[in-house]
Design brief:
It contains 28 helices and 20 strands. With 660 residues, it is of the alpha/beta class. The strands form 4 sheets. It has an 8-stranded mixed β-barrel, surrounded by 5 helices. Strands 2-3-1-6-7 form a 5-stranded mixed sheet, with helices on both faces. A 3-stranded antiparallel sheet has the order 18-19-20, with no helix packed on it. The C terminus is likely disordered. It binds ligand C2E and magnesium ion (MG) (2 copies).
Length: 660
């Protein structure tokens, strides 16, 4: 243990308020006078003469070592001699006659040392008792014949012991208070400032910025999908990840910046003295980068990322509350727009976005009020032109306002609401596909999007099993769409559930393929039947050579692994032609149809079903306007692709039909 320097002692004395005046007041209250000091000096001389301090030390140590709790404080035998000498010196100072500043500091040093090693007051108040009892006998033996002198000396001893004990206790509790203060202001897991200290730091930074005329940036940092780690691998692993993330965030900033932990996976960084927005953006980027390297915990390796929302004083708010709220809104926007990114607060976000809290309550209510529905978007076999599957897509309309799934699905994934909602989606889709089969639309599959949370739920297999049984949906009519990250983040667990489902006959598709990261080796191991090329690649195939090359490569890769490929987001004929030319198996997108409610999907399916062998071209009445575009002349609902007679027909199979 490092020795306690004079400066620290002076500082502690100042913090406790041990001024010369205060010491004088204490002595006065203890009635500790010059006469007492004289008596103590007398007894001191006697003790030195007959080496009473050594006898006392012996006795004291024998007593002390009889208690295992105390023995634990003695590092080894060799230390005993040294400790005994310190002890002897300590007690001898009680009678040495000097009770001024150096005595006080000496007592403080000992109190602090006790505090540091965790020796509690009850042990050293016990030591004073031992000292007094010992002296009772020794002093009596020495001057007991003179009753008056004995009583006065002993009274002086009592006074000095109490003076001494007060000082020791003062330091002890002072240290404890410091510890408590630290605890009250810091987060126990990471040691970072907590919400309370953060608030203080922000307040100071704002004041300073006001004086200096510069800016303060508040960065709300939230780890992406952290709940999944906690839920799947338990809190100790989650804690280790948080601790490492905290360490990296701190390391990425200047010493004068503050990073605080608000709780869970939420951090706030305060950057003061900022002059330009670009600088803030650079720091935000640095923070995101610092989290990029994998984090190893036990046998796992995690890739984490964070989203950051930024509000800047004074532009985005004059007070701490407003700034925090706005940084939170910006964070929410960053999450919504794809995570692993930062967003500055923009005026108007308030109106555009509901606060997260608000949104969560509204989603809960939406479920109860039946505001959630499932729409279906067809997947067309590019070879035969048949609709072979539909993808169920969640829709939420609240008081006439449509809320896009990407605005609330990430949130309900985080809050766990995805479990009941996901179950509802699965059940609705299964029930619907069973109903379509009952209407004669044979071979149709329904695809349902899964979130990580659902797959990691221990009961997921049972949930699917029960829903299939209850709705009469056959396993082979159901396809589950999962994203690459679901597989890659937790391959072993994911594989076993998926394999069990695949054994039942349920098929698995990888959604948004190309946007995440996949190990090709994993792909081969997974019971996956198809890849859905993300629509961002499909959209650019005609204008971006890189995207075209990616799509070409994905299709080739998938085919070599014996997987089917679905082109997502097909919006025009050129994209369709490109995909078809590469042998892409299925297409999905607005070119064929937007997602529709079941009631609107049914006639399309019934008619598309008639495109199967036996379809009679004479029933199809289209008036050609030129090229591929034609006006649909069939009755409402009779044409699989145009919904209203007279609509422009963007029938993908127009060429084939004409050819027939
Ligand atoms: P996704 O699974 O990739 O679904 C396809 C998305 O692309 C849908 O967006 C669809 O409306 C849109 N889309 C289809 N064709 C086109 C096109 O030609 N052009 C363009 N620009 N977009 C097209 P949506 O419905 O907004 O859903 C977005 C995402 O939300 C889905 O992406 C899926 O990841 C998620 N999602 C939707 N419903 C559910 C659900 O029930 N559960 C879960 N876990 N996620 C869902
Ligand atoms: Mg999907
Ligand atoms: Mg997709």
């Amino acid at each position: 243990m490092s020795p306690i320097d004079r400066q620290t002692l002076d500082q502690i004395a100042a913090e406790i308020g041990l001024t010369a005046d205060e010491i004088a007041r204490r002595k006065e209250f203890l009635e500790f006078t010059e006469a007492d000091i004289e008596k103590l000096c007398d007894i001191h001389d006697h003790m030195t003469d007959v080496h009473l301090e050594d006898i006392f030390s012996e006795l004291f140590y024998t007593h002390l070592t009889a208690f295992p709790d105390l023995r634990a404080f003695i590092p080894d035998e060799a230390a005993v001699g040294r400790l005994m000498r310190i002890q002897a010196r300590y007690f001898m100072r009680l009678t040495a006659g000097d009770y001024g500043e150096s005595y006080v500091l000496d007592r403080l040093a000992v109190g602090l040392a006790h505090q540091r090693i965790g020796l509690e007051p009850r042990w050293y108040t016990g030591a004073y008792r031992k000292y007094l009892s010992f002296l009772l006998g020794s002093v009596y033996a020495h001057i007991g014949h003179d009753e008056g002198r004995f009583l006065a000396t002993y009274d002086a001893l009592l006074k000095v012991v109490f003076l001494d004990m007060e000082l020791a206790l003062d330091t002890y509790f002072h240290g404890d208070r410091q510890k408590l203060l630290h605890m009250a202001n810091h987060d126990a897991l990471t040691g970072l400032p907590n919400r309370m200290l953060l608030s203080d730091r922000i307040e100071r930074a704002l004041l300073q910025a006001h004086r200096d005329g510069n800016q303060v940036a508040l960065l709300f940092i939230d780890l992406d999908r952290f709940k999944n780690i906690n839920d799947a691998l338990g809190h100790p692993v989650g804690d280790a990840v948080i601790t490492e993330a905290a360490r990296r965030l701190v390391a990425a900033l200047r010493e004068e910046d503050t990073v605080a932990r608000l709780g869970g996976d939420e951090f706030v960084a305060v950057l003061s003295g900022m002059e330009r927005e670009e600088t803030i953006a650079i720091v935000a980027n640095k923070l995101l980068k610092s989290l990029e390297a994998p984090i190893a915990v036990a046998t796992h390796e995690f890739y984490i990322s964070a989203s950051i929302g930024i509000a800047v004083y004074p532009g985005d708010g004059a007070t701490q509350d407003v700034l925090m709220k706005n940084a939170d809104l910006a964070l929410y926007r960053a999450k919504q727009e794809g995570r692993n990114a930062f967003r500055f607060y923009q005026r108007g976000m308030n109106e555009l976005l509901m606060t997260r809290l608000n949104l969560e309550t509204r989603v809960r209510r939406a479920m109860e009020k039946g505001e959630l529905t499932l729409h279906y978007q067809p997947q067309v076999d590019l070879g035969s032109g048949q609709i072979v599957a539909v993808e169920g897509l969640l829709r939420w309309s609240s008081e006439g306002m449509f809320i896009p799934p990407l605005a609330f699905i990430p949130l309900i994934e985080e809050t766990g609401l995805i479990l009941p909602i996901g179950e509802w989606v699965l059940e609705t889709a299964c029930r619907q596909v069973a109903a379509w089969h009952a209407q004669g639309i044979l071979g149709l599959k329904v695809a349902v999007n899964l979130s990580m949370r659902q797959l990691w739920n221990k009961d997921f297999f049972d949930v699917v099993w029960r829903i299939l049984a209850q709705t009469g949906c056959r396993p082979e009519w159901l396809e589950l769409e999962i994203t690459e990250s679901i597989l890659m983040d937790n391959p072993t667990e994911a594989v076993s559930v998926l394999r069990k489902l695949a054994d039942l006959g349920v098929t698995i598709a990888i959604d948004d393929f190309g946007t995440g990261y996949s190990s090709l080796a994993y792909l081969k191991r997974f019971p996956v039947q198809s890849l859905k090329v993300d629509r961002t690649f499909v959209q650019n195939v005609s204008c971006d050579a890189d995207d075209a090359a990616i799509v070409r490569a994905v299709i080739a890769l998938a085919h070599s692994l014996d997987l089917k490929v679905v082109g997502e987001g097909v919006e025009d004929a050129a994209q369709l032609a490109f995909l078809s030319s590469l042998g892409c198996n299925l297409g999905q997108g607005y070119y064929f149809s937007t997602p529709l409610p079941a009631a609107e999907m049914t006639p399309m399916l019934l008619n598309a079903a008639s495109l199967a062998p036996g379809f009679d071209i004479r029933n199809c009445r289209v008036r050609w306007i030129g090229g591929r575009i034609a006006k649909c002349m069939v009755d409402k609902g009779a044409c699989p692709f145009a919904r209203v007679p007279g609509d422009l027909c963007e029938h993908p199979l127009v060429d084939r039909i004409t050819a027939m």
